Predict the structure of Glutathione-dependent formaldehyde dehydrogenase.
Amino acid sequence: MRALTWHGEQDVRIDEVPEPEIVNPTDAIIEITATAICGSDLHLYNGYMPGMREGDVLGHEPMGEVVEVGSEVETLEVGDRVVVPFTISCGSCWFCGHDLYSLCDNSNPNAEMASEVMGHSPAGLLGFSHMLGGYAGGQAEYLRVPYADVGPIKIESDLPDEQVLFLSDIFPTGFMAAENAEIEENDTVAVWGCGPVGQFAIQSAWMLGADRVIAIDRIPERLEMARDHGDAEIIHFEEDDVYDRLMSMTGNRGPDRCIDAVGTEAHGTGVMGLADQVKQEARLEDDRPHVLRQAIKCCRKGGTLSVPGVYIGRSDNLPFGSVMNKALTIKTGQTHVQRYLNPLLEKIEDGEIDPSFVISHQVGLEDGPEMYETFNNKEDDCIKVVMTP
Ligand code: NAD
Ligand code: ZN
């Protein structure tokens, strides 16, 4: 079959690879009908994620039709149409039992590798390096779905793929980001990053009762989407001083809730290789722009900082003294996608939201390598790429 594969920094190819097979009796195989490129894929594309190997199949935002099920799969049948969460979860460990699906204890067969770095291992993720399980991803014609009874959600209505596909990641991710921000009545919510995750964080902030939403980016079409579709007030971070603007917009108090929907690749931070990181950690001061540092500085005293943006390694150099003395709450993590599937599908079915608004490019799988480049460089008004194999 054809699949998009990783071959090193900024080198994604379309390759012929073996079709996936059932490995465990709880697996299913799906034939992909739609699959998206995520901002998280850019961390792999740019070579920031340890544990990638040449030929790894990319992709963690897939949906499709079940074509085979293992002998122990109970909830899915051949022919079912499903969206597959990027988080792989066993459904029976302590963490899954507490609705903490992205922290599943059993789904990363390479847990030792992750534990060495982090002390513990989070869940395995589809198409996201050997450190997080080494699972082949869904930017391909077929995908093996582990723990098929726990993750995939069946789509029984005739909603098109474009409207339900983002249940796999970015809609739940934006929603959990807003939930983690602990939004209360009359709150002003500031969202850094108007990529797909930021856009869904904006939508979700309104759903959870925000009074004002302020969106920050530098890409014109993304800021326009935040303003026109997201009803947000906007700040262009290269044209304006973000701290000064936020203070003047909030009577110097600062936004009550801050969401970092940017992560490790923040523009202007010059993300580093591991050797550079070690050098940087030795430095006390770091005045390069950095979303987390900026959000900590801007957030009102006693406010909440929610971080859906993905951080890798120790590239952040956080002013923890400010966090402590301003009594900030920080909440973060990979999304517990399974937790949000049913409630968010309901919102789509009820017409409360049509997630397809973020799609800027719909192409074939063979256009994937070019699309990675376009999406990475934020060219051609690219906001979200959906591919159909
Ligand atoms: P994206 O790359 O399309 O969007 C990032 C946006 O941030 C861009 O529009 C960019 O211009 C903007 N940006 C860069 N520097 C900035 C700065 N200094 N201030 C304000 N904005 C800035 O990516 P995306 O798909 O929207 O994903 C965003 C982040 O969310 C990524 O880090 C991704 O890995 C992460 N993510 C996390 C989860 C999760 O489970 N927690 C899931 C999906 C994605
Ligand atoms: Zn993603």
Summary: Residues 38-40, 42-43, 169-170, 173, 192-198, 216-219, 222, 237, 261-263, 266-268, 289, 291, 308-310, 334-335 surround nicotinamide-adenine-dinucleotide (ligand 1) (CB under 6 Å). The mean pLDDT is 93. The first strand starts at residue 2 and ends at 6. The chain has two domains: 2-168+335-388, 171-332.
